[in-house]
Write a structure and sequence with these properties.
Oligomer: single chain
Strand order of the largest sheet: 5-2-1-6-7-9-8
CATH architecture of the largest domain: 3-Layer(aba) Sandwich
CATH class of the largest domain: Alpha Beta
Number of helices: 14
Largest sheet: 7 strands, mixed
Distance between the termini: 55 Å
Low-confidence stretches: none
CATH superfamily of the largest domain: Class I glutamine amidotransferase (GATase) domain
Shape: elongated
Number of domains: 2
Mean pLDDT: 90
Length: 321
Amino acid sequence: MTKNIAIFLLPGFALTSFSLTVEAFSVANLLTQNTLYKYTVYSVTDDPNEKVVTSSNGMKVQTDKHISEFEQADLICLCAYQGAPRFQNDQFNQILKRHYIQGGYLASLSSGSFIFANAGLLKNTTCTVTSEHEDVFRELYPHITLQESLYTVGNRIYTCRGGMTALDMMMYIIGKDFGTELTERISVRFDNDKIRTLDEINKSNQHLRLRLRSPALGAAVEIMEANIEEPYSIEVISDMIGSSVRQLELLFRKHFATTPNKYYLKIRLQRVFKLVEDTRLPLSEIANACGFSSHSYMGQCFRKEFGDHPSAIRKRSYATH
């Protein structure tokens, strides 16, 4: 079944996010030799006759239609970046709200969350924006929680930080629509285009699989992996992803057969192991870098997890190099 996608371009949109979004849908169609996605690009400008929109880097994009011609779609992808915090258009807000009320999906790219928030669409969910706009967003919308993750998955609302994260979010959407086998094929197709290390590509794929199992679980793990030196409490992580401690505990028990705290500790200990093996940093510095109060406590946890002391692991590592 073909999914109809409407891509809205606001003046000052981020060209990279827009291009990756279009390319993801195009590659999905190409690999399956089927029209899984049909997309139409709309200009969000004051003049109904103006169908050329200028991006943040000055490149101009010819759109298919003006926003006044929009009728309906399964998913609206909103591309906004420069000027997003100041954007105000009540008529446009009504289009977004009507689409959502009628059961449609919404996705914001880069700083499109400002427009969703202004339209009152983020009251019961979290979101993300580009890092440079985070402080402004918190100032304008203090009641809305910003997630420290690549993208967010709410109730029919997706948001991402822009840049390469647009591709990560589109991979999630395509996987949700048509399964992980297709997203894995798309990932292979994009590997030569992404300026990422193999570790980053593998990590991105792991996050995608987790998100498809449970958006909240995937978001929690991403936050844990990004905050090792100064670990967050599970209460804070729950608030950040719009969940509760109880819900998070149930998710970790269901998918990992452990508690969130134990899983977080394991992530930190895996980082310890890598630093012990790959560097000559003193154990005290490694302990600090991985959120442990002392290297002796780190050693106790490490031995319980890996069956040996960090110094013994390091000694064997030196012996083999």
